[in-house]
User: Fold these one by one.
Assistant:
Number 1:
Amino acid sequence: MPALTLREILSLDAVRDASPHLLAGADALDRPVRWVHSSEVYEGANFLDGGELLLTNGFGLAEVGEEFRRRYVRELAARGAVGLVVEVGRALAVMPEEVVDEAGKLGLPLVALRRVVPFVRITEAANRAIVAQGLTGPAVRPWGGDHGAALLADLADGRALNQPEVSARSALAGFRPGAGARLVGVSAQGVDAGLGGAVRRLGGHAALCAAFPGDTLALIAVDGGRRDPVRAVQDALGGCGAGVVAAVGHAVAGDAGWLRWSETLRAARTALELALTVASAEPGLVQGALITSSRALALERELTRGGIEANRDRLSHLVEHTLGPLLAWEAAHGSDLVRTLEVHLRHGCSPTRTAALLHIGRQSLYQRLERIESLLGLEVGDPELLGELLSAACARRIVQGAGPAVVQVSGVRSVA
């Protein structure tokens, strides 16, 4: 399907409401429009890449000389602008003759808007129409007419986008986060109905959800008044039922820009991959839904930047260098000292919490900790050693592999 043309843009209701009047470039109205921008004159053509229609309120043309105005039009044409739309009646009583003349010489369509309509209304309508036209074409994305799925795929893949495009596409998909909303990315397996149940449990806030080969992705808007949006989404996902493995990204401001939207989705996908391929730090096999987060797996993500295989030798060396005596003891005695050490470190070296998680008595825990300190020749609680010991224990799980066993029965494990 062909791209939207300048002639079609000028026929949109939002543009017609501004009473457009073509002053030059009538032969170029069938040029395709890639995007519609609004800009002050002093920014000129610096931000154009070609194929754009530029709107300006004319203030920058009101108090400058003829040569500046002509040069401005020449620069727009040189950068491949499709046309120039100028509001008249406020800053400019009429369109300057030299602007009309220069545009005519260059064949650049020049349009005067004779009634005031907010530019944001025009750009939103025009860019939404451009996006809709492109997404129904044959070559953009394999998601058919599902605008939400196409946008989620582009965001999760980190494709080069721009904020006006993302805003228009999200609006086209019906995703309009409220003022102050926080957005949280989700990547999940075993979830049906596009995470709709989780969204309802959050109170019906806006969400983009779509199923893809390998996972279901969602971008969920959470009320900005919630103290911990990540925990809120995790709790909501806990009701998805058995067989679900889901990972939640970090919370970002809804108005922070598309790069932040992309980051939370990509963090969720990375966390899901780790949850499926690396044994959990929590002891024992927990059946049911596994709900984790990128922050819970922050150390795993840092240790595996670039992929597990690319880091395997380095991580194996870290494990052997730091925990070698414990591994040798475990091989000979069948104990669980490394897991004990990691759980103890992850929970603030609290004997009460560690013993409860390991399902052992405190006296048995103290005996294990004494054995660990004796074998390693150090004190587990030494602040200078905590980072290295925890990294090494985490690295051991990574090189061992074996993500969560198949989750089949009720019960939820949530890690944040």
Note: The first strand starts at residue 20 and ends at 24.
Number 2:
Amino acid sequence: MNDEPTPPHPEQTDGLLSDLLQEVQKWEGTLAGGTKLGVGAEAVDSLFKTKVSFGNPQDKLIRLTEDTFINSGTELIDIYKQQMRDQFDFYYMTLTVDLRPERVAQFWRLTCELDFGPKGSKEPIIQSLFPSDRWRSVMSFGVGLDVGLGGNLEWSIGIDSSQLAQLLPSIPNNLKASVSTKDNFKAFLAVPAYNYQLGYSEIIANGEGNSVCYWRINDDNLQRIGTAKFAIVFKVPKGTDSITVRGTVWAEPKMNWLTSALEDVAAVLSERFQRLLGQGDDAASKFARGGDAEFWTLTLPK
């Protein structure tokens, strides 16, 4: 995989923000009489207290079979029929990420990385990921979408019939065949009523064919995302009873927001903070929230 993300070190970022908060409070306390948090301290404190966390990946872990697709009005293509019969068990999983920005905190990038195990002969293989940049134009419509999985294990979208006619001219030609009304939706309904709160984001998804995957979402209003949903189809060699997943997620703040909030005290901050703040978004990962790894052992449904 190219350009793999590098998670921040939570202890280092916490220490950095704690030191920054002390410096800002020292100078803003002088300016404001020390009666309450100034603009800069409010921004740093909000950033410090922001939480980013995972949901439980076992919650919507489902085994996919030939009957799963037949019952959904579609049929697996031959290669996946053969793999299901002779070689692999296939599974679908939805994993949620909850971004809880504190007060005035603003963010621009969310990164989620998943590492499936065990490695070696029993290593899981990631088949398909959602969302991806391919779908951002449809997701930016801001309407409720039904996300489904067709017999080719590719994603498709269902939109309410009252809205599809109006939106159809804006759907790229290469996606039109994968978009239908909810009434005519022939796919395994993977994520019903998927509601994407952001606008025209950049969404990078990488990892199909591997055991490690990641998503990177860039959006100037990322703090509005609330709970993000990521969908994964993966396969494991037959006879595999359980897998492990190591998940890491973090959110990077908008540096122009932070530097603007610190404008009144920027000239008196220590050299290291002046240097970091001068780097713009290149330094955003230094102030990221999250970064702690979660580790799960998942029992696979039969």
Note: The longest strand covers residues 88-100.
Number 3:
Amino acid sequence: MIDTTAHPAAGRVGERVAAGDWDALAAELDEHGHALTGRLLTPEACRDIAALYDDTDRFRSTIDMARYRFGSGQYRYFTHDLPDVVRELREAFYPRLLPIARDWAARLGKPAPWPDRLGEWVEMCHAAGQAKSAQILLRYGPGDWNALHRDVFGEMLFPLQVVVGLDAPGADFTGGEFIMTEQRPRAQSRGSSTTLPQGHGLVFTTRDRPVASKRGWSTGPMRHGVSTVRSGRRHALGLVFHDAA
């Protein structure tokens, strides 16, 4: 197995994140609550990260989704000793997402406690009792799925997160679309599905987002999950910008 702690991709993912059309991504997040990035990782880097799933020493815990009625399949939480490529992705996304997070908080009249540096924000999470790594590697097989949910682990919350597809849809697996539902004010809930290309990211709402209304801005609660995998195996990397209790 290639050790992705020092993977050559780790030096370039930050540049790929920075090269995204962030004005367009912000507009799409405003409109839909989720937005695809361009390619962040090569197929080789994706395969190497997916292969880490069997290296249990890299993870602090394993969650069997069926046991907790979260769906079917497994995911594992990394320890704080993240592979370089995972750490750099997280550090590269945070300053790009931060202006969006602050803008959303301003529209909703909510506090925006997030400092300029990710490390300082993580220290604040730890001081508040959320000291466990929340970065996850997910594995789904045929028949597996992920129930609609929110990744909220306490009072310390960052309103956006990222999932990166590690396998090629249609080749490595079928089904397994990323799904989101939005509870709209005084209206029926609305759902959407996204096929996540290998190596691409999807930025999406952690809990809720601002929605324009006649009275100004209101809160639009959102949940996310994964539809049933019909064949093959699907891996994904989840980047969360707050730690867990």
Note: The chain has five helices and 15 strands.
Number 4:
Amino acid sequence: MWPGLWEQEYSDDADLNPWRRYVVNNNDGEALAVWRALAWEFTAGLSRFVIPTYYRDEAAQLQGIDRAAVQLVRWEYEVDLEQPEWLTADIGFVPARACVPLLPDPWQREHAGFAGLFPVASFRHLTDLALAVAGDATSEITIFALQDPDRASMLASALNQAHHPELAEILHPGDILVDVAVVHDLGAGPASYLTIKTPEATDEVGHLAAHFSEAFRRYATQASQIRTFDEFHDAIDHLLAPPRRIGTT
């Protein structure tokens, strides 16, 4: 949306580089960051655990975690981006797999059939996980948001069981699953999908979608007037900001 993403040089400083700070560049525009902001705000107040599909070890490196310390799981959620409609794209749980080099070391070879389940404590950490998987034609991250933080080990156990897990058995009242499956190369699939599932009906998705849609409309009207990366960062921070809650300033 902002012309500077095509015209200006990106800084090597992660805090000044739009790709490393927001996973936004001249191909993956600002709207995808808005999807992550909606997912983050919708899961506010819950304990979040994220599977970055395929690029498990790259995600650990960006998080500063030793690969051997990552919680490994045998199952991951999949939305098939080659499908033209979400109802057929929403596959559900599939056996996990991780990227390994052509000449893997013994640890990589032994753990190629596992995904990583990462606890996420900040929006920047979520962005780092999105960055870890964003280099391919498609990417996917899945957020499990639990009302009870003590159920983290139960989540890991459910995703490590021998038989195919069912989402209805994993999500308890108050829990949420958010899956962000993105087409980066337009030749790789017909559409990107933002999937949100909860055990109970809620109007909050609609309220947040309305907030971020209006924020994006405001951003779009001013994007051509942004001149510098500093101005761009200020504008994006406003774009991604959550709605004000009653009684807050």
Note: The first strand starts at residue 47 and ends at 52.
